[in-house]
Amino acid sequence: MILVVTSNSTPLIYLAKVNRLDILRKLFNIIQIPDEVRLECVDAGKREDHPDAYLIDKFIQQEMITVHTLPKNVIVRAELIAEEFGIDVGEAQAILLAKNKNEDEILADESHTRKAAKSLGLRPRGTIYVILTAAQRGIVSKDEGIDLLNKMVRSNFHVSVTIYQQTIRALQELK
Question: pTM of this prediction?
């Protein structure tokens, strides 16, 4: 079975910040993003000389992340969704890319983006889900999962204290 996922910027950026973008490739056969997400992650990141932007670009160049240029009508719809839900155009484009590819899930961390995705029938999953799933499948150890979460938080990853504690507990309880 081919596992495909569409991602928004944040999961890519934070997994790249902790140098574990490879986890996505171990969980999914195809990682796809709209062009606007590439602009946010790579172009804007490189302008500010963020190392994670270069790693994401490397994954794109090696065709481990596929970039899709959306048709004009979808871009216009994304702009309307972005305005309606108070999200970035890249987030709205990622949602529509997932919908247009008949996917059930999307990788997104921001609460407004998750709400927009749910309203359009998608199941949003975040960076924490990626780490938990990787630990459950033995891609990383539970200690590595805890370390990754802590490194992300030190890199300014926003997570509530409650979710952080629940995630640490879930990782510790893995066998």
Answer: 0.93
